[in-house]
Amino acid sequence: MAKKMYYYNVKNRSAGTVVYHIPEDNIHRRFAPGELKRISYEELLHLSYQPGGRELMANFLQIQSEGVPKSLGIKTEPEYYMSEKEVIELLQNGSLEAFLDCLDFAPEGVIELVKKFAVSLPLSDF
Fold first, then answer.
1. Cα–Cα distance, 20 to 31 (Å, whole number)
2. Pairing mode, strands 7-12 and 61-63
3. How would you class 88 by CB atoms within 10 Å of its CB: exposed for 0-12, middle for 13-18, buried for 19 or more?
4. How far is the CA of 47 from the CAs of 25, 31, 58, 66, 88, in angstroms?
5. Exposed, middle or buried, 106 (CB in 10 Å: 0-12/13-18/19+)?
6. In this structure, what are the phi and psi dihedrals at residue 55, rounded to the nearest 5 degrees?
7. 91 near 121, Cβ under 8 Å?
8. Fewest C-beta atoms under 10 Å: which of 51, 79, 82, 91?
9. For position 14, what pLDDT does the model report?
10. What pTM value is reported for the model?
11. Main-chain phi, psi angles of 73, to 5 degrees
């Protein structure tokens, strides 16, 4: 009986291209900025074993399923799951406290989104 494969949405939320290679499985992936791909749990697990793999998933690639990052040994804060829409909402309508929490605890990919939207959106200086 074949083993069931589980797939998850994985998004590059950084401003640059993210590339990884898993030689044992002959996998080479390239994510353009903002690109979303369906990746198997097995591939994510193998990526977590690669040098820098967990760092890529923690800071630049967002696994859009709660619980999966933790099962891969990736520590996440609530800011890890923020979408572009939520970042814009935070910048336009969020409290100063929520904004400062985001700056303190968000992964690099979210910080890049904050920078991108802070200069491209009309924002209050308040």
1. 9
2. antiparallel
3. middle
4. 10, 14, 12, 18, 30
5. buried
6. -60, -45
7. yes
8. 51
9. 85
10. 0.85
11. 85, 25
